[in-house]
């Protein structure tokens, strides 16, 4: 049914549910897995002075290094979990991309035929204010998306 599953994780407790579900599914199907973690672009403030702080070059480098370190930690844990289950998996960390864009791009580039990700299931104003990476993935994906709550 599915031969290559992309599992997106940000290392959160909620994302762990998606990882657990995706790895269990992969084990049952004998599917290969790509586990993805994304470090989004550094938040850069457009205004200075009385409007707020401006990110310096050092701030951006520190943000990127922290993203790399956190991504490595998340992916190492995911790979250990996959190995424990006997699932053939690879880890991918993408920097400087928005999560939904990276998820769809990596799924395409790696030939994945299913995307598994978790969602808070926010509605209304919460989704409007916070946005929804899940909705963006669903809207633009070329392959089926399994959303775990």
In short:
The chain is of the alpha/beta class and 149 residues long.
Describe this structure in words.
The protein is an alpha/beta fold and 149 residues long. 48% of the residues lie in helices and 19% in strands. The chain contains five helices and five strands. Strand 2, helix 2 and strand 3 form a beta-alpha-beta unit. Helix 1 runs parallel beside helix 2 and helix 3 packs parallel to helix 5 (133-140). The longest helix has 29 residues, at 57-85.
Class computed from helices, strands and strand pairing: alpha/beta
Distance between the termini: 22 Å
Instruction: Bin the helical content.
Output: 40-55%
Structure summary, number of beta strands: 5
> Roughly how many Å is the radius of gyration?
17 Å
Unreliable stretches (pLDDT < 50, length at least 5) are 126-130
Largest sheet: 5 strands, parallel
- Order of adjacent strands in the largest pleated sheet: 3-2-1-4-5
Number of helices: 5
Overall form = globular
- SSE run: EHEHEHEHHE
Average of pLDDT: 89
Fraction in beta strands? 15-25%
Spell out the key features of this protein.
149 residues; alpha/beta; 5 strands; globular
Give the topology, please.
Blueprint: E1 4-8, H1 13-29, E2 32-39, H2 57-85, E3 89-95, H3 99-109, E4 114-118, H4 124-130, H5 133-140, E5 145-148
Parallel strand pairs: 1-2, 1-4, 2-3, 4-5
Helix pairs in contact: 1-2, 3-5
